[in-house]
Design goal:
Organism: Labrus bergylta (ballan wrasse)
Order of helices and strands: HHHHHHHHHHH
Largest sheet: none
Protein name: RAB7A interacting MON1-CCZ1 complex subunit 1
Pfam families: RIMC1
Shape: globular
Length: 250
């Protein structure tokens, strides 16, 4: 477990004891859900502190790969525990939509920040292109899962929305500023992947294993631009970078 303030660790230890007790002796599913949600929040707090240290240190080359994998593992643990302790229930019903979204967002955003830093290390990428592309693919997958946690609202499902802007957002699965930021992150990562895939003959043999970055980036950024220049126009969302990326992807 990552080191942080004693209060966090004591809280985590107490919650882990509750989880062990549940696993050994059984208990009510409602109590399990609450304990797992509390545990997930502790994990989010502790890893947030560690992530910020990595960002502040600009992801040191010697230790970042190990620390990032540890953080990704820690942020995956609540899902694993939910599946193991409540196999008859969907993970999202155990942890709740917001926490599950946050787990995917935090893993995807961590890999985005890491790739954003690596993207500026041209010499490193020349020697580690496959590692870079793997990080991008993993990050895009997490961010796409974040966008898919909540189903978009179908306007013919008996839902009455008097605000056309709100209706537009919900129909596209945009529920918060974080969802919009996720779209921009996905677009940027897809652009980096296309840039380095196109100039790399070594990746062609494994193309079937890779995401269709050009298609994904184009689709996501088109939604982003439509939202920012439509209902969100004048709200401070910039589309210049998204449009520049789209002109290259298309």
């Amino acid at each position: 477990m990552l080191r942080l303030h004693d209060d966090y660790l004591q809280n985590a230890s107490a919650i882990l004891d509750k989880l062990k007790s549940y696993y050994r002796h059984g208990g009510e599913s409602g109590n399990l859900s609450k304990v797992l949600q509390d545990y997930t929040q502790v994990i989010l707090d502790i890893t947030f502190y560690e992530e910020n240290k990595l960002v502040d240190q600009e992801f040191p080359e010697d230790c970042s790969p190990f620390k990032i994998q540890q953080l990704l593992q820690d942020l995956t643990e609540p899902e694993v525990l939910a599946g193991r302790l409540a196999p008859a229930q969907e993970v999202q019903s155990v942890l709740g939509l917001e926490l599950l979204e946050c787990l995917y967002w935090r893993r995807g955003a961590l890999l985005y920040m890491y790739c954003h830093t690596l993207h500026q290390r041209k010499q490193w990428i020349k020697k580690n292109k496959d590692t870079f592309l793997k990080c991008i693919q993993e990050g895009v997958r997490y961010l796409m899962r974040m966008l898919q946690v909540r189903n978009s609202v179908k306007l013919n499902d008996g839902v009455v929305l008097h605000d056309p802007a709100t209706a537009s957002f919900l129909s596209e699965g945009i529920f918060s500023d974080t969802h919009l930021l996720t779209m921009m992150y996905i677009g940027e990562m897809c652009f980096w992947a296309v840039k380095y895939e196109d100039c790399s003959a070594d990746t062609m043999d494994r193309k079937e294993d890779r995401l269709q970055f050009r298609d994904i980036g184009t689709q996501i950024l088109n939604k982003y631009v439509l939202a920012c220049e439509g209902p969100l126009q004048g709200q401070g969302w910039n589309t210049e970078n998204a449009k520049e990326i789209l002109s290259i992807l298309q």
